[in-house]
């Protein structure tokens, strides 16, 4: 039997609500830097929902990679019984990741928005060709994104998949993470990269 839990805001945040959840470190970088306070709100409401519903599994999208990683950290640190499952992004045929924000793009901006996926593909091609230096990869990202006149880059970085700290070489699981304004709409996307094995320089890519 399917069920839907859809509480009204006053049920989650009653008068006098004053307790919040903050995941130090992870919540302060990239998205946390660009959107101060955002992750505190996310962690708090997810924590409340998991405590109320107490599901065996909770599913989050990898498009919001930093958010998913933060929720996994919260669940581990606070000994939650719920298993956090991270799912791959769903994409349009042209590569644009599905997002509620896509509806704000006009026709021209919608076409321009594919530059995020094209930038990730360019980074993948360089990595597949053996490039591991992050500065070289960032140059490729900035060049690809900069060629689109509707795009304004918030960040384009390569970070450790666990800590989301910047790395200098891609030799462990990493994310290529992008946040780009297309017109007035801010979009994010990423490419997950990991070594094929512990003794191999070959990489596996996950869009």
CATH topology of the largest domain: Pantoate--beta-alanine Ligase, Chain: A,domain 2
Strand content: 15-25%
Largest sheet: 4 strands, antiparallel
Helical element count? 7
Which second-level CATH architecture of the largest domain applies?
A: 2-Layer Sandwich
Count of distinct structural domains: 2
- Write out the strand line-up for the largest beta sheet, numbering strands in chain order: 3-4-5-6
The overall pLDDT average reads 96
The secondary-structure element order is HHHEHEHHHEEEE
Radius of gyration: 18 Å
CATH superfamily of the largest domain, by name, is: Pantoate-beta-alanine ligase, C-terminal domain
Q: What percent of residues adopt helix (DSSP H or I)? A: 25-40%
Sheet/helix structural class: alpha+beta
> Span between N and C termini?
33 Å
CATH class of the largest domain, named: Alpha Beta
Which shape, going by the Cα principal axes?
globular
Low-confidence stretches: none
Structure summary, number of beta strands: 6
Task: Describe the structure concisely.
This protein has helices at 9-12, 31-34, 38-53, 65-77, 107-112, 115-128, 134-146; strands spanning 57-61, 83-87, 151-160, 174-182, 185-195, 203-206. It has 207 residues and is an alpha+beta fold. A 4-stranded antiparallel sheet has the order 3-4-5-6.
Task: Characterize the structure shown.
It is built from 7 helices and 6 strands. It is α+β, with helices and mostly antiparallel strands and 207 residues long. The chain folds into 2 domains: 9-87, Rossmann fold (3-Layer(aba) Sandwich); 100-206, Pantoate--beta-alanine Ligase, Chain: A,domain 2, CATH 3.30.1300. The protein has a 4-stranded antiparallel β-sheet with strand order 3-4-5-6. A two-stranded parallel ribbon has the order 1-2. Helix 4 links the parallel strand 1 (57-61) and strand 2. The protein starts with 8 loop residues before the first helix and ends with a strand. The mean pLDDT is 96.
């Amino acid at each position: 039997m399917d069920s839907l839990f859809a509480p009204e805001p006053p049920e989650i945040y009653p008068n006098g609500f004053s307790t919040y959840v903050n995941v130090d470190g992870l919540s302060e970088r990239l998205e946390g830097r660009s959107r101060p306070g955002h992750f505190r709100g996310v962690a708090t409401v997810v924590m409340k929902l998991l405590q109320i519903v107490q599901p065996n599994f909770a599913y989050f999208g990898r498009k919001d990679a930093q958010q998913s990683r933060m929720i996994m950290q919260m669940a581990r640190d606070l000994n939650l019984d719920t298993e956090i499952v991270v799912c791959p992004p769903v994409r349009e045929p042209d590569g644009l990741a599905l997002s509620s924000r896509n509806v704000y793009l006009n026709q021209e901006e919608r076409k321009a928005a594919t530059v995020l996926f094209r930038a990730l593909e360019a980074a993948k091609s360089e990595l597949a060709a053996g490039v591991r230096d992050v500065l070289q990869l960032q140059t490729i990202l900035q060049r690809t994104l900069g060629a689109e006149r509707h795009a304004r880059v918030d960040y384009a970085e390569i970070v450790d998949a666990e800590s989301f700290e910047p790395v200098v070489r891609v030799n462990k699981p990493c994310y290529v993470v992008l946040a780009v304004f297309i017109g007035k709409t801010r979009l994010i996307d990423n490419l997950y990269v990991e070594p094929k094995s512990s003794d191999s320089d070959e990489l596996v890519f996950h869009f």
